[in-house]
Amino acid sequence: MKQHDSSYEDLRQRRTRKHLTEALFTLLEERPFSRISVVDICQRAMVHRTTFYAHFDDKQALLRYAIGELERSFEPVDPSLDPRTGPKEYFMALFHNAFEFLKAHKAMLLAGEHDTQFDVLYEIITEALRTKLTGTIDLDPEITARFYAGGLLSLLRWWVTNGTMISDEVLIQHVERFIPQSPSSLQKG
């Protein structure tokens, strides 16, 4: 991603990147990433193609940027929530943030299992969990993160596919019961 020094320019750049990211997420609800072009993204964002290339080298660079922004938005904003001291509270805050995003972007969950949208969501959640679990449990953080990310996304896909016949509250209550209360619950045994 390309950078400029001026703070005014930085504000404009952030606004443009925000519009491009939102356009990409909207398009991902309509069709697979492989069928989205830079022109499609620019038209949806109402940004000229040369402006797109002033910010990103290609659509993959935009996707990487969007993933990073989405990952940051899933993080709990309460600094007291730390997986070392309260993994359940941290994880549930992360889950609530991801759940709200996914409710607003249900079509991303309905994509085929090997489509880019699903893979992107899976990698975002896995990376956030792996990063926070590293050094907090005796189990391998990569395996643990992939287990929980896969299970949660499968559960959410099932929930969306079945017309959300189960309330948000019931779904959240079940997820809370699935998550261990303390790091000692995830110790090697």
UniProtKB/TrEMBL annotation:
Keyword NADP: no
Keyword DNA-binding: yes
Superkingdom of origin organism: Bacteria
Domain HTH tetR-type: 14-74
Keyword terms: DNA-binding
DNA-binding region: 37-56
SUPFAM superfamilies for this protein: Homeodomain-like
Signal sequence annotation: none
Name listed for the protein in its UniProt record: TetR/AcrR family transcriptional regulator
Organism annotation: Flavonifractor hominis
